[in-house]
Amino acid sequence: MHAKSSGPDGHTFERQITGIREGSTRFPRYDAAVLGFEGYWYPVMWSRKLRSKPVALQLFGRDIMFIREHGKAYALENRCPHRGVPLSLGKREFAGTWTCRYHGWTFDVKSGVLVAALTDGPDSPICGKASVRTYALKERLGLIWLYNGTGEPPPLETHLPQEFFHPEATIVGRITDRRGDWRYAAENGFDEGHAKYLHRNAAMMFFLLMPGYSRVNVEPDDEAPWVTRKVQSVEFESEYPGLGKWPRRAFWKRKRRGARVSIRMPGLLRV
134-149: per-residue pLDDT in tens? Predict the structure, then answer.
């Protein structure tokens, strides 16, 4: 079953409801977080991708424009409050500002406040009375991090995995657009069972013997705030009543050591 809902800016999104009636879910905060959890920093793009031209992204159900001014990155709502034109179509007329392409409304990139309405003249009374939302933004580890929330954000470092700061760490990655929302990736990565069947005959597993099943406890990790999948026992072949043994073991395969998988807010997965 699919339900359509409306995001904070009128954007629609679909969510799948399986086995639980609308309004009776056991995890209301999780179900409401299709567009992400508020109060957290999120990595949104590579720093090197933001150069002289603006970059427009849709994040948390909102249209956001990223620009770089004198080497510093800024994030603003990508919608002029005058006629709704995307600000990312505009241009820089004055240092420290960004101007809408339609009527020349010009905003301070740091505060988002309207500082000039060019086609109204220099004494336009609308100046200082209109603004666009700005977003807290930090650059660390070659990434641009955006805060999803209002008010003073917590220090970025409190939301970053400490492994990123290891002196021998190398940070690489891939950013792609996928159908669905972030929860599919988080759930799939933390799902203990699917790899044992779905990926059993993948090419990379040709010489590896996958377990048939494992007994697993999910519990808080010693390294808070991670929650970890802790394996209690592993079975490589079992007798299924009335059916027979599964899986059938090929002589060339060798047992594979399992991975330690952890997850933490707002959707970080560690393998």
Answer: 999 999 999 999 999 9
Specify the pLDDT at position 221: 87
The Cα–Cα gap between 222 and 224 comes to: 6
The confidence score (pLDDT) of residue 95 equals: 96
Q: What is the pairing mode between strands 105-108 and 55-59?
A: unpaired
Place of tokens 């820089």: 92
Closest CA to 231 of 219, 246, 214, 250: 214
Phi, psi of 89 (to 5 degrees): -85, -5
Structure tokens at 2: 């699919």
| pLDDT tens-place string over residues 24-83 | 567 888 888 899 999 999 999 999 999 989 999 999 999 999 999 999 999 999 999 999
* Alpha carbon distances (Å) from 120 to 84, 123, 129: 18, 8, 14
The C-alpha atoms of residue 66 and residue 57 are separated, in whole angstroms, by 8
- What region does 265 belong to: left with phi over 0, alpha with psi -120 to 50, or beta? beta
User: 184 and 194 in contact (C-beta within 8 Å)?
Assistant: no
CB atoms within 10 A of CB 95: 8
Sorted by sequence, the CB contacts under 8 Å of residue 121 that are 6+ apart come out as none
Radius of gyration of the chain (CA): 24
- Nearest partner of 135 among 111, 113, 100, 101, judged by Cα: 111
Positions in the chain short of pLDDT 70 = 1-25, 257-258
Residue among 245, 174, 168, 171 at smallest CA distance from 212: 245
Residue type, 231: V
d(CA 83, CA 25): 40
CA distance 103 to 173: 40
